[in-house]
UniProtKB/TrEMBL annotation, chain A:
Pfam families listed in its UniProt record: Prok-E2_A, Prok-JAB, ThiF
GO biological process, one term: proteolysis
Keywords noted in UniProt: Hydrolase, Metal-binding, Metalloprotease, Nucleotidyltransferase, Protease, Transferase, Zinc
Occurrences of domain THIF-type NAD/FAD binding fold (ranges): 363-466
Superkingdom to which the source organism belongs: Bacteria
Protein's UniProt name: ThiF family adenylyltransferase
GO-annotated molecular function: metal ion binding; metallopeptidase activity; nucleotidyltransferase activity; ubiquitin-like modifier activating enzyme activity
Limits of the JAB domain: 631-724
TrEMBL record, chain B:
Disordered as annotated region, ranges: 356-386
Lineage: Bacteria, Pseudomonadati, Bacteroidota, Cytophagia, Cytophagales
Provenance organism: Spirosoma profusum
InterPro entries the record matches: RibonucZ/Hydroxyglut_hydro (IPR036866)
Name this protein carries in UniProt: Cobyric acid synthase CobQ
């Protein structure tokens, strides 16, 4: 009963590699001259005998594994060792129906051992032939000792991989639920209908996807919808809608045997069903009569009830997927010789799968403002990680030059970027509810009620207009505003996140990045380069729609990846008392090979002072400055002290951001009733700050103390302010005077 | 859960075995370790320390065995105990001990009869550690039941009196089902020896006072039969076995507990003739042969010894092997740790315990990757080049 007895010896030349393998096999099994037999046009086999150590009272469960197991080692004539060898049983009566970890084969083929879960060729590339042969021996030992299934509480499904190329994509749970609950389409038939489609764009017309259960009550509506769709001339149709029929044993019989015969034609398929109590032909005629067979391609699934939960799934059913291509005349005209194809099952990409595969902190409901090159990459990172609550706002269309860096590809040219991305994400998650993936095709400044839907606002526009709009907007309490931009021709990535209760606010953080150029070299380089750069090439974002933006996709991708990781991390911060974030990623190629680094700064809340003169201006002091002012006041009291404020003023938002103070520049002099602020060396000091920050941060006002607790401007103060206003208007900057009393800070700002 | 296993280490003339239960509980029987065995580069010497460590579990980064059973205090059963097992207050186990890979014994099995005469420093260390633990229990110390302080007394007292600790004791005829503070549903140990009679024996020696026990595995807790019975006899001789037979049958434990049956039999005293009789000129004791007749279908005998050759060495004794083989279904059922799988590179003999009895497991690892580089062993070889 050995298969090798009917195989002919191979007499032609063998490659050096195959010869070496045969020699090694001979040494391993102690065979001086191993036989080489022809298996088929592409393969030879070497018959060997494995000694299997059986338990003292025979193989477990009476499985027919013997102490001497004749096996065939299959070698590819042309592709060994790049194509892995396979281990086949030489026995025609090998107990294949009772063993897991076998590739699906039929009775007329040798049983083929599945030695590794992953790609066998990839595995073999990492091991020696001797190891492969060892593993073969271990397989047989495990089969004999009942250890093939590492988790004995689960049933290893039929291994169809490598045997069939056609695919049927559906969610196991979807079909399992219907089958387990015996939800029949019509009472006298153990079958259910599902709607899906033939995947036209998959490149293989025999690939199908099944998406939803169709109970009889909604059948007519679905059938009519399909009929309309089928008549539409639509070149963009990605799937031909079809019904999938799922059958199960009417008696709920359990089957623990593996398939060893594969119905190859309609006659054999009918027999397969008939053995399981179903008259397939009559069933199909009935379904055809009801109008449930709209196309020639007919996917049929049979659910086999296994004794235990099937490994990798949430149920006991194993599904075998068949495909029949009907003759044009319909079911009645199918003859028994009509070919039946087997399809492999693939789980559709789903939120659960994405979450498992990504193993990343999940971001909350996120509104992305800007779906340009940076935004598109962040959006897809987020979506691929399983976030199905994504809003995308962009009024721009995909243009040819976007192909250099955008995540979208050429088939989306001319389409609105937000819509294109939303539609792609929905296609990822065909098996999930995707109604929270939304595209907003208007400009960001028209956003209003939409904010209520999201916990994260992620602005990748690099637009000051958008930033100012978002600063002015009342956001929901738990919504956090993030902003990402790439600067310095790709050398620098900046990610900002507002703090609790929007403090620090986004403009605080953006200006702080400039101020930190006084301390951090990468920021200084950026700021100084920026000061000399044309405005159009400053940042990637909206500016990217200009063909003048020069930056490689991989550079942008690097920063996008870092931002995405930072965003995922930032969303885990406790909301209460949350500090702001200024995160810096840098890519330095000035010394040859790329050098990358990141820095992560926690930014404490700013102290906010409103103008006492009623000008509507607001002064925002970086955390720590208030304390510094009080400390200086206390130290010099009862004499007055003072100095200048370092920061920036924004006329649009009527805000002065203060990041530092200069205390008593040389030449200053304080008395009990006045403070004379000197200027020796001060201009040079300010100029240096301005130079380092790219002309962004500099002198922005005066501060002095009122140790006698005068809570207002003195006459002298008013006079000085009047003089300064004339001077400052020429810059222009507003005139800001900050009074430090023993217990209060008072600001006066005048344009 | 994984199948239970029994591993017999190749330690020459000596014993070291590891029983691993399906819940991961590890029971080590005897040890023969050299302090530097894990640095050995000779392929003929199996690095048993390295293999042992790879077979153990870690808790808080520290190696431990649930139970350590010393059958008796001879050097070939406890060599390396002092240097490889942690002795002392488990709360004081620190980085230094961790760096030395010292193994914590959660529970010790201790026979008061076998360790009162000082013969070697390892035995002495074992005795001291046992007494430390016994003292904690005697003083009812708060930490007495913590892992590393647990102890079980096997057999009877000799010179010292531990009667106040009888609640910790198991004697011949007892079945133990609780190991390291956990009840086992599918594993138990039947205690055969040492007997009280050995206390009064004029030629009292450690060998005849060995702890002898039967490890019993069930496929399922509800089954009344055993899927594997493994006999561990230390260095017990034919007189002990005659006694075991007599007592077991007298109390009907051969029937009620299947206490004499075996699938795996660790040949006592490294396949020495002493299991069969005093001298080779004497006839084989019928009781010894009778004990072997309790072999179940497909049973194995394991000789934990150096290579058995046809000469006058004892142990291992060639004629003893012949006697064992007569009782087995084939000569391949007699395994000598020194030559398995091959004499040039011995490896531990491992049995998986299946529902149909023990099965000898093939090598688990898949060997080396397709590319490799020599390590300390390769570099340590002196090479002369012309």
């Amino acid at each position: 009963m050995l298969r090798s007895s009917s195989l002919q010896p191979y007499a032609d030349d063998l490659s050096v590699e195959v010869q070496a393998a045969i020699q090694e096999i001979g040494q391993y099994f102690g065979i001086p001259n191993p036989k080489v037999l022809i298996l088929d046009h592409w393969h030879v086999v070497v018959p060997v005998v494995y000694n299997v150590s059986l338990p003292s009272r025979g193989a477990v469960d009476g499985i027919d594994i013997r102490e001497q197991e004749p096996m065939l080692i299959r070698l590819s004539l042309n592709s060994y060792p790049h194509a892995a060898p396979f281990l086949l049983s030489d026995r025609k009566d090998f107990p294949r129906s009772r063993l897991s970890h076998l590739y699906f084969t039929t009775d007329d083929e040798p049983a083929r051992l599945c030695l590794v879960r992953n790609n066998p060729h990839e595995w073999f590339a990492t091991i020696k032939l001797r190891d492969f042969l060892d593993v073969g021996g271990q397989w047989l030992y495990k089969a004999a000792t009942g250890q093939l299934d590492e988790d004995g509480d689960e049933f290893d499904p039929t291994r169809l991989e490598g045997n069939i190329g056609l695919k049927h994509i559906y969610r196991y749970d979807l079909i399992n639920e219907v089958v387990s609950q015996n939800q029949r389409f019509i009472p006298d038939l153990p079958a259910a209908l599902f709607i899906g489609g033939q995947l036209l764009k998959a490149g293989k017309v025999d690939s199908y996807q099944t998406n939803a259960h169709v109970p009889f009550i909604v059948f007519e509506k679905v059938r009519n919808a399909i009929a309309i769709l089928s008549t539409e001339e639509n070149e963009e149709l990605v799937a031909n809608p079809v019904f999938t029929f799922v059958f199960w044993d009417p008696d709920g019989a359990m089957d623990n045997l593996y398939l060893t015969s594969r119905p190859k034609n309609y006659g054999q398929l009918k027999l397969f069903f008939s053995l399981r109590g179903i008259d397939l032909h009559q069933a199909l005629l009935k379904l055809e009569m009801l109008g449930a067979i709209p196309r020639l391609g007919l996917p049929i699934v049979f659910a086999i009830k296994r004794p235990r939960r099937v490994i990798g799934y949430n149920g006991n059913y194993e599904f075998i997927n068949f495909l029949i291509v009907l003759p044009a005349e319909g079911v009645a005209a199918i003859d028994d010789s009509r070919k039946v194809k087997l399809q492999g099952h693939i789980e559709p990409f789903s939120k659960d799968m994405a979450v498992t595969l990504s193993d990343r902190n999940q971001t909350s409901a996120s509104l992305y403002i800007g779906a340009g090159s940076l935004g598109s990459k962040l959006i897809l990172h987020d979506a691929r990680s399983g976030n199905l609550q994504i809003g995308i706002c962009d009024d721009d269309t995909m243009l040819p030059h976007n192909l250099a860096r955008h995540a979208l590809v050429a088939d989306r040219l001319g389409q609105n970027k937000a819509e294109a991305l939303a539609s792609i994400i929905k296609q990822f998650y065909s098996a999930d509810k995707t109604d929270k993936i939304t595209a907003i095709t208007s400009n960001a400044i028209y956003l209003d009620k939409e904010f209520q839907e999201y916990q994260c606002i992620i602005d990748t526009t690099a637009s000051v207009q958008v930033m100012n709009f978002l600063i002015s907007k009342q956001l929901p309490t738990n919504t956090r505003y993030y902003k990402a931009e790439i600067a310095d021709a790709g050398a620098l990535g900046l990610l900002y996140a507002e703090g609790y209760n929007r403090n620090p606010r986004m403009d605080d953080l953006v200006n702080l990045a400039s101020f930190n150029a006084t301390k951090i070299e990468q920021l200084r380089t950026w700021r100084m380069n920026d000061a000399q750069r044309e405005v159009t090439t400053l940042n990637v974002g909206l500016g990217c729609s200009s063909t003048t933006s020069v930056m490689a996709d991989d550079t942008l991708g690097f920063h996008a990846s870092v931002f995405s990781r930072m965003l995922a991390k930032a969303t885990t911060q406790e909301s209460q008392g949350m500090s702001g974030i200024l995160a810096i990623s840098s890519l330095d190629e000035s010394k040859g090979s790329p050098s990358i680094s990141t820095e992560y700064l926690d930014v404490q809340a700013f102290d906010i002072l409103n103008c006492k003169a009623g000008s509507g201006w607001e002064v925002r002091l970086m955390g720590g400055i208030k304390e510094l002012l009080f400390a200086n006041g206390n130290r010099q009291a009862p004499k007055e002290t003072g100095g200048v404020l370092i920061g920036i003023a924004n006329y649009k938002t009527k805000t002065i951001h203060v990041f530092d103070i200069v205390v008593e520049p040389q030449g200053s002099h304080g008395t009990y009733c006045e403070f004379v602020r000197g200027n020796k060396g001060l201009p040079a000091e300010i100029d240096e700050i301005k130079r380092k920050t790219g002309e962004v941060i500099g002198y922005i006002g005066e501060w002095h103390t009122h140790p006698m607790n005068l809570k207002g401007l003195s006459t002298k103060d008013e006079k000085t302010i009047a003089e300064l206003r004339v001077l400052n208007r020429t810059v222009p900057i507003p005139t800001c005077a900050l009074i430090v009393t023993p217990d209060e800070l008072l600001v006066y700002v005048y344009e | 859960m994984a199948n239970p296993t029994i591993k017999y280490f190749p330690v020459g003339n000596g014993d070291m075995s590891l029983i691993t239960l399906e819940d991961g509980t590890r029971i080590q029987v005897d040890c023969k370790l050299t302090a530097k065995s894990d640095e050995s580069t000779d392929p003929k010497i199996c690095d048993v320390k390295k293999d042992l460590l790879s077979s153990l579990q870690k808790r808080d980064g520290n190696y431990y065995v649930d139970v350590f059973i010393l059958t008796h205090g001879d050097r070939d059963h406890c060599h390396g105990f002092k240097d490889n097992f942690y002795q002392g207050d488990p709360t004081k186990y620190g980085q230094k001990e961790r760096d030395q890979n010292l193994i914590i014994m959660d529970t010790m099995w201790f026979s008061p009869m076998i360790a009162e005469q000082y013969t070697n420093e390892d035995e002495d260390a074992h005795q001291c550690e046992a007494e430390r633990r016994l003292d904690l229990h005697r003083r009812n110390h708060l930490d007495k039941d913590k892992p590393g302080n647990r102890i079980k007394i096997i057999g009877y007292d000799s010179n010292k009196d531990y009667k106040d600790l009888n609640h910790l004791r198991a004697v011949p005829g007892d079945v133990v089902t609780r190991f390291n503070d956990t009840d086992q549903q599918t594993f138990s140990i039947f205690i055969h020896a040492p007997f009280k009679i050995h206390l009064d024996s004029p030629d009292k020696d450690k060998n005849s006072a060995s702890i002898v026990f039967q490890a019993r595995f069930k496929a399922y807790s509800w089954r009344s039969d055993f899927c594997c019975l493994a006999m561990f006899g230390g260095d017990s001789d034919h007189t002990t076995w005659a006694e075991i037979l007599e007592r077991t049958k007298r109390f009907k434990n051969d029937v009620n507990e299947e206490a004499l049956s075996w699938d795996l039999f660790l040949a006592p005293h490294h396949c020495s003739w002493s299991f069969f009789n005093e001298t080779s000129e004497d006839d084989v004791q019928t009781t010894s042969l009778e004990a072997l007749d309790y072999a179940r279908s497909g049973a194995w005998v394991i000789a934990s010894s150096k290579k058995i050759v046809n000469n006058d060495d004892n142990p291992p004794y060639y004629d003893a092997k012949k006697e064992y083989v007569k009782k087995l279904s084939g000569s391949d059922k007699f395994l000598n740790t020194a030559v398995e799988p091959k004499e040039s590179a011995p490896e531990p003999i491992v049995f998986d315990i299946t529902v149909n009895g023990p099965a000898r497991a093939p090598k688990k690892s898949t060997g080396s990757a397709s590319s490799s580089a020599g390590g300390a062993g390769a570099a340590g070889t002196i090479v002369t080049q012309g």
